[in-house]
Design goal:
Blueprint: E1 3-5, E2 11-17, E3 21-26, H1 37-44, E4 48-53, H2 70-83, E5 89-94, H3 96-108, E6 113-119, H4 138-161, H5 176-188, H6 191-203, H7 207-212, E7 217-222, H8 234-240, E8 244-249, H9 256-259, H10 261-273
Parallel strand pairs: 3-4, 3-5, 5-6, 6-7, 7-8
Antiparallel strand pairs: 1-2, 2-4
Helix pairs in contact: 2-3, 4-5, 4-6
Protein name: Alpha/beta hydrolase
Organism: Bradyrhizobium rifense
Keywords: Hydrolase
Length: 274
């Protein structure tokens, strides 16, 4: 399996398919590069080079005890892009991966980056604070950690079968295959990485990162997102970006790259070509 080893000795697994302008995909919590199958298959057949890595502690990357924070996530992504010597790359991040992309560009600069897209993404800040009164209370995320520690197999099943894909909405038609694939990806990773990752995605403030970014960024979000609520995320991120464009999807759930892949892929393609 193709891997790189980071400065602190962590093996990061990655996929690298095709040739052409590179698109680098950063996945959400607690998943893996496999969550981008619908996008990677679409773009590799349209003359793009598609790359996706498993975040440290997730998927096929090392299940280390430490470094499960946005600085390490961004540095690991930078290590992959440097190893592959990517230039003029487009970065696409979903959920936690959207935070990873934003922090990577702000922390490591834009010399290798052409554009970015963040989908159902956690920036600017998920947790409720005095400065972010629309955020979710910290005890929501504390509850996630408690549920994970008590038995993540059942917890992951409940997330996938419920709010992640909007399968708990009236009239929804749950896909057992999609639910099982989410659960499979989650259970491949390390419980410690996922436990710490809840703090990383909920308590990292990306406000200053967003302000630093100059490249065009497409901010895509469903207004029925039950994981990262719309009002306190996408519109605020788009305003903070120098060159941000907001695209809102009526009724789309958090997992819209899977449930509405045809729409999302077409809109990404249009943005890449613009």
């Amino acid at each position: 399996m193709p891997t790189i080893t980071t400065k602190d000795g962590v093996e990061i697994f990655f996929k690298d398919w095709g040739s052409g302008q590179p698109i680098v995909f950063s996945h959400g919590w607690p998943l893996s590069a496999d969550d981008w199958d619908a996008q990677m298959m679409f773009f590799v057949t349209r003359s793009y080079r598609v790359i996706a890595h498993d975040r440290r502690g997730h998927g096929r990357s090392s299940q280390v005890a430490d470094g499960h924070d946005m600085d390490h996530y961004a540095d690991d992504l930078a290590a992959v892009t440097a190893h592959l010597d990517l230039k003029n790359a487009i970065h696409v991040g979903h959920s936690t991966g959207g935070g990873e992309v934003v922090h990577y560009i702000a922390r490591h600069g834009e010399s290798r980056v052409a554009k970015a897209a963040i989908l159902s993404a956690v920036p600017p800040l998920m947790v409720k604070t005095e400065a972010n009164p629309g955020g979710l209370p910290k005890d929501v995320f504390d509850g996630f950690q408690t549920a994970l520690a008590a038995g993540r197999s059942a917890f992951y099943r409940d997330i996938a079968a419920g709010p992640f894909y909007g399968y708990n909405r009236p009239g929804a038609k749950p896909s057992e295959a999609v639910i099982q694939n989410w659960w499979r990806q989650g259970m491949m990773g390390g419980a410690k990485a996922h436990y710490d990752g809840i703090v990383a995605f909920s308590q990292t403030d990306f406000t200053e990162d967003l302000k630093k970014i100059n490249v065009p960024v497409l901010v895509m979000h469903g207004d029925d997102d039950q994981i990262v609520p719309y009002a306190d995320s996408a519109p605020l991120s788009a305003k903070l970006l120098k060159n941000g464009t907001l695209k809102t999807y009526k009724g789309f759930p958090h997992g819209m790259p899977t449930t509405h892949a045809e729409t999302i892929n077409a809109d990404l393609l249009a943005f890449f070509k613009a």
